[in-house]
Amino acid sequence: MVFITKSNKIDEQEITSLYRLEGPALERKEARDRELEAIIKGEDQRILLVIGPCSSDNEEAVMDYARRLADLQEQVKDQIFIVMRVYTAKPRTNGDGYKGLMHQPDTHAAPSFVDGLKAVRHLHYRVITGTGLTTADELLYPASLPYVEDLISYHAIGARSVEDQEHRFVSSGISAPTGMKNPTSGNLSVMFNAIYAAQHPQNFLFNAQAVETSGNPLAHAILRGGLDASGKNIPNYHYEDLLAAAKRYSEMGLQHPFILVDTNHDNSGKQFEEQVRIVRETMMNRAWNKDLATLVRGFMIESYLEDGRQNEPVVYGQSITDPCLGWEKTQALVKEIATMNK
């Protein structure tokens, strides 16, 4: 096998020495991380929102959004805990399209993982120090974890990665909450097997080293819908779907049962405004079945400054990947969730 090498090995110490949290900023992150852990464990019954842009391509627009989100968090802090999506690595089904800040920090320039990792650290650092919020990112490249994990409070394993053994095993060594999505097929067994693997000790090769992990008890389920053989959307946020997921948790004896509903992707068919209806239905199901209310305690929502999406980064604060809910609709929805959770 032949690999075409364009650069030398990335210097981990050089990257991780940049934008390190210290003093009050570090203390605040650690305090919020403890709150987040308590929510996953069921010790804190606030609703978890992992919310923000589909992809973080424009730093200033992301910071504009983050400041608004921080103000909103303060308004709803008794009912909702917000972790901001700062997604910097995007999976591409056929390899085409924007692959995220980590891959291409300048959308008009050539890809650069060295510059990308620096940009990723800088953006997470700016959100944390500039707003007091903590952040989530998708773990697309397991090898990138050592470069960024000190800044990230919530990791997501995507629908295309959840079947991969390396993603499952690396997740077992993460100390932060890690959401495992069901695959694009919608198969719950795949997702729950991934959660089982992540929650248990593993030994494997990682970055050319033999490693052992103690397991990640904070690994949990993200329901994001799926596609049938014909490409039709099959949502999995309905009442019967939630009951089926709850049953799987019980049968497998997994730790800290927690379900987060992804309101976009194959649950909405990428019809971004449907996210509002999906949240309302889920909150009604929680109110109807109190047992579900102890289990279904979070939403992943794609939201940005402007409704929808665009093909080129022309409109400030509008997604260049999946369509997102604009700020006015986002603000109204978050306040509605807070009211329903009282």
UniProtKB/TrEMBL annotation:
Q: State the top-level EC class.
A: transferase
Is Amino-acid biosynthesis a UniProt keyword of this protein? yes
Which keywords does this Swiss-Prot/TrEMBL entry list? Answer: Amino-acid biosynthesis, Aromatic amino acid biosynthesis, Transferase
> Where is it found, in Gene Ontology cellular component terms?
cytoplasm
**DAHP synthetase I/KDSA domain residues:** 38-333
Annotated signal sequence is: none
Q: Report the record's Gene Ontology biological process terms.
A: amino acid biosynthetic process; aromatic amino acid family biosynthetic process; chorismate biosynthetic process
Q: Which InterPro entries match?
A: Aldolase_TIM, DAHP1/KDSA, DAHP_synth_1
Q: In which pathway does it act?
A: Metabolic intermediate biosynthesis; chorismate biosynthesis; chorismate from D-erythrose 4-phosphate and phosphoenolpyruvate: step 1/7
**Presence of the UniProt keyword DNA damage in the record:** no
SUPFAM superfamilies linked to this entry: Aldolase (SSF51569)
UniProt GO molecular function: 3-deoxy-7-phosphoheptulonate synthase activity
Question: Which reactions is this enzyme annotated as catalysing?
Answer: D-erythrose 4-phosphate + phosphoenolpyruvate + H2O = 7-phospho-2-dehydro-3-deoxy-D-arabino-heptonate + phosphate
- The EC number(s) attached to this protein equal 2.5.1.54
Purpose of the protein? Stereospecific condensation of phosphoenolpyruvate (PEP) and D-erythrose-4-phosphate (E4P) giving rise to 3-deoxy-D-arabino-heptulosonate-7-phosphate (DAHP).
**Family the UniProt entry places it in:** Belongs to the class-I DAHP synthase family.
Q: Can you name this protein?
A: Phospho-2-dehydro-3-deoxyheptonate aldolase
- Gene source species: Streptococcus parasanguinis (strain ATCC 15912 / DSM 6778 / CIP 104372 / LMG 14537)
